[in-house]
Fold:
Amino acid sequence: MPHDPNKLPAREALPPIGTLAAGVAHELRNPLTAMKARCFALRELLEPGSPAFRQAEVIERELDRLERILRDFLEFSRPSEPEHETVPLGSFLAELADLLRPDLEANGLRLVLDQPEPTATARFDPGQIKQVLINLVRNAIEVSEPDHGEIGISCAAAEGDFRISVADNGPGISPEVHAKLFTPFFSRKPGGTGLGLSIARNIARRHGGDLTFDSEEGRGSVFHLTLPGA
Structure:
């Protein structure tokens, strides 16, 4: 049989799309890191407030956005398994609140933290669950009116599990969007990847929990992260 130059041998077949996407994303991160470093060095040479300085700031923000897109894409294409440990929920949420408070204050919003019982613990990967909650709070910040309102984080026992809730008083989610909200690449934000909530729910489910929400137009939204108790 004549050799077909357009047909790859089996051992040279293309990898699955997830592996291919992850490889491309890894390759893109190297030049992106180099560009960020040089942009920072360039900004240090410019006069603060000058037109050139402001342009450098725009470039730096866009590079940060590209980095977030790549990070989401990598997490979506190659999710990592959680490394469970027993976590005291009170101190975990207090540290999370300290981390997020500057973002809220910069937008004129108040964080209300309703602490769980002092002895409350759950088993989860702290880094991954922190990623989920940061995503939920930042989404809440984006839908809240600047200089108005508050975002709440609360934790409660729920039939042997624990449920951490993030509430906002934004415009709520329209009913026609409910079924699409966790769909990969669906986004209500201009320039959004549409991966954040999909990744967050996948992380919750890999922990044996789930991510759900309640919302009504004009009355805000509450996202519920359910985790198995310790």
Summary: The domain at 10-77 is CATH 1.10.287 (Helix Hairpins). The chain has two domains: 10-77, 85-228. The mean pLDDT is 82.
